[in-house]
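Schema walkthrough. Field components (list of strings):
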Amino acid sequence: MLKATKIRIYPTPEQAEFLNRQFGAARFVYNKALHIISSQHKRHGLKLKAKEQGKHLVKIDQWFASSKTCSCCGHKVDFLPLSVRNWTCPACKAELDRDINAAINIRQQGIIKLRAEGLSAPANGGLRKSGHALVAA
Ligand SMILES: [Zn+2]
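Field assembly_structure (string):
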């Protein structure tokens, strides 16, 4: 059983200043450590998570135009406002859902990166339980 005890102290002004400095230093060290752990997790967290699950993490360029590129023919439109959820490719006339089109393009980009690293991509898109599964970020 855990017990907690509250103690009330009445420090002198000098003792209060000393305590404030000590607690301030402890807070600074704690916040610094928290920042280091947080930044390490941001940098390596996904990679570690993928490794734990037996998957291979592939990073694609954050500026890759996944929504504006037609997943059927590869044509890229110059401007596609966020409010436009469905659009028609001017080159091949394919009707595209913005999110599904982006997902297909991201998957394709991940497969290209995977192959560039000398790894293979399963034909079923990584749904098989054995071997490397695909993860795109
Ligand atoms: Zn197209």
